[in-house]
Known about the structure:
Layout (H helix, E strand, L loop, with lengths): L1 E2 L5 E2 L15 H25 L19 H25 L8 H27 L1 H24 L8 H12 L6 H15 L3 H62 L6
Antiparallel strand pairs: 1-2
Helix pairs in contact: 1-2, 1-3, 2-3, 2-7, 3-7, 4-5, 4-7, 6-7
Amino acid sequence: MATHPGGVDTLDPIGHSDSARSAVTWAAVFAGAVVALATTLVLFALGSGLGLAAASPWPGAGPAATTFAIGAGIWLIVMQWLSAAVGGYITGRLRTRWVGVHTHEVFFRDTAHGLLAWALATIAVAAVALSATSSTLAAASATTNAAGYASDVMLRSDGAGSAAANAEVARLLGREGPMTADDHAYLVRVVQRNTGVSEPEAERRVDAATTSLRAAADKARKTSSAFALFTALSMLIGAFIAAVAAAYAGSLRDDVDGHAMRPGHR
């Protein structure tokens, strides 16, 4: 009989010596992570079918980042909640039963197993998807497309336009930082030369294009920030749910095993 530091007596059938076997049941952790990944795929397909997955965690899938909405963020949290709960539960039920371990230590190990399963599944998703990078690249692509469209509008005329002029204007509009006075004056001259409109009309077109591009860049920035916020929130919730589910499943497993080991039980 050994006394727990907190004053609770615990059974120690092998004496006061630590086991050489690791406390981590990796088979259960991997099984829970695989189930969590599969659940995520199923829920993502369901969300895509229902039009809820406006932002995809997989590369090359889903609409552009600028279409991200609150509903998609909520669905992202729901996917994490359900997949983490299922994965954590599987991990807790499949882990090896610990004999002669204090209940507080068992609770800690169960929550750690659920957290490990969640972490493994999250790393696997990040390695395949690189969602943050995809979101950033999508936002940058949207800004580039907006610059090209703005140049087309500026140089719009009844005659044939110049592809070289369109490309040059798009580069000037798409450069980082505020537009300089020289670039503004040059764009006004390019618009006049290629469209034949008056100088006031050319200036109006340049100013309208600049304003629309600033709005597009600001929208892309806010969308990227919202996506990152919802992703971080869903991951934190997923970690907590996986740990709780594993602890609950582990307690159920120990109750079942303890009941089965009682004398006279059939």
